[in-house]
Design a protein that fits this description.
Helix content is 62%, strand content 3%. It is mainly α. The protein has a two-stranded parallel ribbon.
């Protein structure tokens, strides 16, 4: 089935969202929404649910010691939170982050873009 667009409320939620992780987060969210969609339109409730999860993950990556627990999180979500926290701590410098984590830049890129190839 091919997507035709967004419900008006869905588009409004996307436009009003802060996008703290900018383009990469926006791209990831759009890809997830296309996977979640079972009809011709991306639904408002799907966008609301996904953006709520994104807010929680971003808040946790910014304040990892404030009651953070891995309970209820998938391995993909946990990895993404930890990797994003490391990128943020290094001011967005991916080379430094990869070195700190003991992984290659390619592996870091894959981790940051995890889930985008599942389409």
């Amino acid at each position: 089935m091919q997507l035709s667009g967004f419900e008006p409320g869905a588009m409004d939620l996307l436009v009003r969202y802060d996008w703290p992780d900018n383009y990469s987060q926006f791209k990831h969210v759009l890809q997830e929404l296309t996977i979640l969609s079972s009809g011709h339109y991306i639904l408002t409730h799907d966008v609301a649910d996904l953006l709520a999860r994104e807010r929680r993950m971003h808040r946790r990556s910014q304040n990892p010691s404030e009651g953070f627990t891995f309970a209820g999180q998938t391995m993909e979500e946990i990895t993404r939170i930890i990797v994003q926290q490391a990128v943020n701590a290094n001011g967005g410098n991916q080379s430094l982050t990869a070195k700190q984590l003991g992984i290659s830049r390619t592996t870091l890129w894959r981790m940051l873009n995890q889930g985008e190839d599942t389409k």
